[in-house]
Design a protein that fits this description.
Layout (H helix, E strand, L loop, with lengths): L14 H12 L8 E6 L6 H9 L2 H6 L2 E6 L6 H13 L8 H12 L4 E8 L4 H11 L7 E6 L2 H7 L5 E2 L5 H12 L9 H12 L5 H11 L5 H8 L3 H8 L3 H9 L3 H8 L10 E2 H10 L12 H14 L4 E6 L2 E5 L2 H10 L4 E3 L13 E3 L18
Parallel strand pairs: 1-4, 1-5, 2-3, 3-4, 9-10
Antiparallel strand pairs: 6-8, 7-8
Helix pairs in contact: 1-2, 4-5, 8-9, 8-10, 9-11, 10-13, 12-13, 13-17, 15-16
Length: about 375
Amino acid sequence: MTHSYVNKLEVVGRDIDKEKIIKMLMHPVDNKNISVIPIVGIGGLGKTTLAKLVYNDDSVKEQFKLRIWVCVPEDFDLSKIIEGIIKDATHQSLGNFDIQQLQMLLQETIEDKKYLLVLDDVWSNDRNRWNELRNLLSQGASGSKIIVTTRNSEVAFMMGTHPTHNLKGLSHEDSMVLFKKCAFDEKEREPCPKLLEIGNHILERSHGVPLLVNTLGCLLYTKHEEQYWAHIRDSETWNLAKVEKDIVPILKLSYDYLPSNVKRCFAALSLFTKEDKFNSTQFARCWMALGLISSTREKEALEDVIVEYIKELWKRSLIQEVMQYGSILTFEMHDLVYYLASIVAKNDYSMVGLDTAEISKGVRHVSFPSIPSEGISNSDGVPLF
């Protein structure tokens, strides 16, 4: 799940991209057709962050009195999307409405209103479902616009009415600004020149991916030994990432340098689904049930140890948006990091559905996500594993 809030002061190097999107939003249209602006890029590049910057811009707020933010389900479930639009537009909770009732509520919500809708993180290229949603959204006033963020260029081609905005990596200069924010203490007047030199080499391999720059910066934070920085720079992981054209092996560096006890807890995150809203209580139950939490200090409550572990993951940028409500911490996990948890846990943990053909012989723990009965295709029984 994503949300629309962004701290503009923490975002680096996206001013030109922001202005290009806003220019398309402000461009008048001559017909009733909805304008759709796709933002495309790999995971971790900052598509959602760019959409947030545009969404919260003062000129955009003035132009679109009704602004709506929806994180799209991976299967493009029409009912869930419509429900998300209505909830965000009206700030009201909904009862158990069927699809017909939801469609009527949606029309009432947007009818004759000029709106901006952000559909964040679209994966499905199901044209029929998109056409159905687009027809329902056409009840808004002329000039209504939609921003779509996706990793899939096919989705952008299917949905977009404007040329796709292909998001690129940050420039080296902007990457360095972001890296310094993460890797060095703000109280330091001037970072060590030798560390900066090594950092420059690291950034050259980061391809300007903000999630990667941020993660590596957090990994090196408070580490002042040149040998430690050089080890990160010279790691064979970079070669693996170059071959696979994938940043997950580089993200794994943060996992490799976790304390061993926190590593086990991080791997157990793969027992949850990406759609889960994470909190410390939920993890506490799982980690304690698996026997992963122990206290080595006298009189130290297990709950305090759990908070320490979560903060350790946060320091390494493996979890984001950590908020504290009393004794409970809530947070989010980027789907690339979730994928990383699945990779490092594959020999011990497995997410299993009723259609799972087989699992590794070494797996010791399985998780069955809750599945609505109508979504079960294998209703005769569990898999043969």
